[in-house]
Amino acid sequence: MAQIRHALTARRADDFAAWYQEVISAAEMAEESGVRGCMVIRPWGYGIWERMQRLLDDRIKATGHSNAYFPIFIPLSNFEREAEHVEGFAKEMAVVTHHRLIAGKDGGLIPDPEAKLEEPLVVRPTSETIIGDAMARWVQSWRDLPLKLNQWANVVRWEMRTRMFLRTSEFLWQEGHTAHADETEAKEHTLTMLEVYRAFADEDLALAVIPGEKPENERFPGAVETWSIEAMMQDGKALQAGTSHYLGTNFAKASGIKFQNREGSESLAHTTSWGVSTRMVGGVIMTHGDDDGLRLPPKIAPQQVVILPMLRERPEDQDLIDYCETLRTTLAAQQVMGEPLRVLLDTRPGKAAQKRWDYVRKGAPIIVEVGGRDMENGVVSMLRRDRLWDEETGKPAFQTPTREVAGQTIPDVLADMQNALLTQAQEHRDANITRGVTEFADVEKHFTASRYPGWMEVQWSKPTGEALEKIVERLKEHKLTIRNVPLDAIPVDGTCIFTGEPAVERVLLAKAY
Amino acid sequence: MAQIRHALTARRADDFAAWYQEVISAAEMAEESGVRGCMVIRPWGYGIWERMQRLLDDRIKATGHSNAYFPIFIPLSNFEREAEHVEGFAKEMAVVTHHRLIAGKDGGLIPDPEAKLEEPLVVRPTSETIIGDAMARWVQSWRDLPLKLNQWANVVRWEMRTRMFLRTSEFLWQEGHTAHADETEAKEHTLTMLEVYRAFADEDLALAVIPGEKPENERFPGAVETWSIEAMMQDGKALQAGTSHYLGTNFAKASGIKFQNREGSESLAHTTSWGVSTRMVGGVIMTHGDDDGLRLPPKIAPQQVVILPMLRERPEDQDLIDYCETLRTTLAAQQVMGEPLRVLLDTRPGKAAQKRWDYVRKGAPIIVEVGGRDMENGVVSMLRRDRLWDEETGKPAFQTPTREVAGQTIPDVLADMQNALLTQAQEHRDANITRGVTEFADVEKHFTASRYPGWMEVQWSKPTGEALEKIVERLKEHKLTIRNVPLDAIPVDGTCIFTGEPAVERVLLAKAY
């Protein structure tokens, strides 16, 4: 096999972290902003997020939720009402203390001491406490329930160590908040939204996630149950890609969400919350990227097909552009997986070959190049991002269908690519979950012996409190965490790998982002 | 004519401000949040904003812009670089000074003195200075220009007197930012975006705005030119509904947006910025609302048709629901003004008549009620929100087409209503602009004599500096402001109403929100 000259400098196998940063930069997805912990999301990266928003928003609305918008500022007193919640977030909150600037002694601006807020405001890290206030106003009777809200917003959690998309002080997300008449319905809804996330992650993002319940120590501050979807990255680490929380009556108590029930007496509502963030973009990179850059599942690609005429700044260029425009029109009129196909004809100045590599790095699913000879022959040169190289020759694996055939078959190629990426992610995940280990010593061995140990599924007795804390500490020595208790794990059979007591469920162990 | 019992308590003619608040509350659009100056946008209000976003976003993308996202926090030092800009915003900025909370002496939370930021951060009131930093990194050569960006975001300007949608400390908006190689192109683009706003306001929101240039004293802090679209509310006051700024090289200088031009030497970019916000929602209320609540142009109605079966909690209800479902399916399959028709079949518990008034107050364009007798006769009872009352009888003006005819004609009715609302707004505007006044004393007389004086178009000599300031002060005595210099005003003919010098252009005077 010939040597392939990949489009990136870093290699996944050599330095996954450096590779990740290079993809983000080479695909022009995001960059450091110069403001501590905050990133700039560039048009290509934001275009991916917009696609995710559109697809997830449709799913959220289809399950009966309405979008609304709540204040970015939360008074400290709101936070203080739920003890665990404030405990969980107090260490990482941006606090607004003044509402005006004036010139200081050296001429620079300073917060005006005369404009100090009586009660400092926190920039929302999450909105349970402020949405709870609104729910308390809106919910009077059982007829007002369930109340199903969602918000697309920015939130801030002051992070000391940041990594683009995965952990930034400001990030974008949606946070759903619902109130229900009873525990059964609220718990059911928590799982409904977990399933919405699973379907979104698998069907739209091709992530192959595992849904399950988080252990006690990993619960959202103030939650009774926390569920997650966990995705396996190509380095075998786990990424928590979305969470759904059953909050019991904790936040209803704190905010006073009470209603007159069918029997005429007063009840507390049971609430849920659930969120997915720009972190997902990081998950897509680390699941699908390769040594040539990003590869995008067609459903979330800002452009699914990019057409590059090989222009030479000559009068004949116009013929070439017209030839390409016909293909563009044909494609733009077609549907792919239920939506209009997104196609870009790029006629900006610059060499087609250079642009080709730009779009390879950006992960555009199909790149179509058209030169003068292609036009003469009535064909196009087509590159499929997930089959980029001819391994025999070490050259890009161009196909040359006629323009008409390209126009007809590209929608199917895109649908095929969507499936292929999911299959790859599933296969990678399934090949890298170790099962059947029964001794903790073997867990330690497994995770220290290999550079890419993947995940391990073990049985445990579901210890709580201090017993759990001890296990968590022990795992921490190997940088391991308990990811979740998979929803569809096979039944247990044997003893707990930590305590030796009879096992009650299976848990996933992994290093994680 | 019979007495009509309107659905609101307040009347526009009696107390426009109270009426405005009542519409917002009765239509469940928004409410005070309890956080100073911040409102909660409820699902119906947010649904209107989502419609506006979708329509405007399409227009912004169609003119070659990409969305991106920039940090919410701006370091003070960024602001200090452009003197006029900081001068304009320093008085109303939310300042973040700490990044952690701890328990204070009395047990309550306080900002942790150990976690004080070295440089305070401002919550963005607008993003020229932070986007300028990114532009400086991205623009190297003339080939990188024009750079056309847009951001959908929340911004904060600390307001002492707030009014829902019109003036809130936090609001939602889009802010476009572009960089160009020269003044001509940048100025042209400023006007292109003004026209995008005009078309959006007129064609989508039915506002009948007047585009024009703001006088010097009303310019955006740091701008060379500021243009606006001005809408006339039903009380004759003006609402600035969107602005487009040519920023010259002011922000390019401040942020260092330089490029190698075609000649190989270094040039400063010329930048523009332009924004439209949730304020537009207030403009829609005050333009189209009536004494029964909101009226929504169909293009921005979250639901264009609401079907209300008159359920009686009996087994026969299911037949009625099926009958309505057939109409819903027919309508949902149709296109209205280029988009799928939005129809809601509301089967929640509750009386249809009460729900009817809820949707009247919310401004749903068409309400369809269906009772047992309607079903027997194969008809539906249809109410058109812009022709609500039969003035003869004082009762709701129901029409009773067959279900099939309703299914076929409703798309046309919606398109007709969109036009009718625009025509009404245009007629109201045109009937309430006074022209031909040549003496300032008559201006004063006009604006003090009438409760609804509308706007006045006068000629002026375009004074600047102190001369302009004096005029502005004089107008202020009557709470008047110069709105803009209309783009398409007829040529001047005579002298300046303020200075007696030869007039050079026409300006609009009005009280404003």
UniProtKB/TrEMBL annotation, chains A, B:
Annotated PROSITE patterns: AA_TRNA_LIGASE_II
Top enzyme class: ligase
UniProt-listed GO biological process terms: prolyl-tRNA aminoacylation
Key words, A-Z: Aminoacyl-tRNA synthetase, ATP-binding, Cytoplasm, Ligase, Nucleotide-binding, Protein biosynthesis
Listed SUPFAM superfamilies: C-terminal domain of ProRS, Class II aaRS ABD-related, Class II aaRS and biotin synthetases
A molecular-function term among this protein's GO annotations: proline-tRNA ligase activity
Domain Aminoacyl-transfer RNA synthetases class-II family profile: from-to ranges: 28-297
GO CC entries: aminoacyl-tRNA synthetase multienzyme complex; cytoplasm
InterPro entries with a match to the protein in the record: aa-tRNA-synt_IIb (IPR002314), aa-tRNA-synth_II (IPR006195), aa-tRNA-synth_II/BPL/LPL (IPR045864), Anticodon-bd (IPR004154), Anticodon-bd_dom_sf (IPR036621), Pro-tRNA-ligase_IIa_arc-type (IPR004499), Pro-tRNA_ligase_II_C (IPR016061), Pro-tRNA_synth_II (IPR017449)
Alphabetical list of Pfam families matching this protein: HGTP_anticodon, tRNA-synt_2b
Superkingdom of origin organism: Bacteria
CDD domains (UniProt xref): ProRS_core_arch_euk
Catalytic activity: tRNA(Pro) + L-proline + ATP = L-prolyl-tRNA(Pro) + AMP + diphosphate
Protein role: Catalyzes the attachment of proline to tRNA(Pro) in a two-step reaction: proline is first activated by ATP to form Pro-AMP and then transferred to the acceptor end of tRNA(Pro).
Family classification: Belongs to the class-II aminoacyl-tRNA synthetase family. ProS type 3 subfamily.
Subunit-structure text: Homodimer.
Matching NCBIfam families: proS_fam_I
Domain statement: Consists of three domains: the N-terminal catalytic domain, the anticodon-binding domain and the C-terminal extension.
Protein's UniProt name: Proline--tRNA ligase
Lineage: Bacteria, Pseudomonadati, Pseudomonadota, Alphaproteobacteria, Sphingomonadales
Gene, per the UniProt record: proS
